[in-house]
Amino acid sequence: MSEGKKLNIFFLPAWYPNPDNPIAGKFVIGHAMAILEEVSHLSVFYVHPYKNASQIFKQEVFAKDGINHLIITHKRFDGLLFPVSMLLYIFSLFYGYKQAIKLFGKPDINHVHVLTRVGLLALVMKYIYKIPYVITEHWSRYLPMVNNYHGLIRKKLTRLIARKSSGISAVSENLLMALKSHNIINENSMVIRNTIDTNFYKPKAKNETTHFKFLHVSGLEDKVKNVSGILNAVKELNRLKLVFQLHIIGDYEDKKTFEEFARYHHLSNVFFYGELYGEELLKHYQDADAFVLFSNYENLPCVLLEAICVGMPIISSRVGGTDEIVNVNNGILVEAKDEKALEIAMKTIINTYQQYDLALIRQQAIQEYEYKSVGKQMLTFYRLAVANYHRIK
Questions:
Q1: Would you state the pLDDT for residue 145?
Q2: Three-state secondary-structure class, residue 39
């Protein structure tokens, strides 16, 4: 394949926006946008089992933001009928992929996002259609503190899919090391970070206020995000008579518990907004002074990237790849579950906020996470993958 030829790429994500979760796999969209102008065609093929589907099988074909889509939704059954769901999913994968080729042409490379199910599809298509595939892993399940990677068959299959691929990337050094510790390896392996639309996530002039504003954005699942730990830190800081606010965006069943906690402890400086998207969400980023994330485990959270692209200091627990994001110029790291350390970090940022160079925070974030930078890495990854495939086939 000539160096100058633009590639036709298929994205095969296990996670993608769907009726159950409109922001699922939004980092996959980020990677798509990063390479969109540098490839001949970019198509997404995604299958979603949906419990509330009105039809057994539904196929949608559309283009959005220059990306071709083939989305198949099938009825999801639970309990004794779960095997029916599995058969529907397998049928949707293989039937749908053939339809994708008819619609969008044969790709030069399949790009799997999140193992293992769609990786199996890519492995089979490698032998049927002679199409190489690469893998990008986003899932924190492989990290030691998560310990959610089980099953002998799953492990053997995952290792096989990785070995037969033409390359593996992970969105953080930490995750790539975790994959290698599970023997999920390939000679073409590299870190390709999540990316952010830096033209959208940008600062605006802030109004002078008497309240320092912290922002937290997440799915609010406490066992992961430890929002309760943040609220405990707020409770203690209120006793010190610090003047600040905490704005919490997101929704989950735990949200009611957090709201009750805030009412019981008279945390009148804590505000809940539910799920917000687009311009509504951006406004909260732009109005905030600092971002706080106190997760028990993470990988490379996009919310931290969004915050520094807007140009604000961040506080995060030292988990997953967060220490690859946070540095002395843009924030403070604390140990997971250490509420006293979080309390001190929040107090410190309030008192030292003027020392942060907000323009520098944004400038460094752009250099690392903008579409152009990440897209260049992805194209290098593809070229190596295609070269390796033709060398060893």
A1: 83
A2: coil
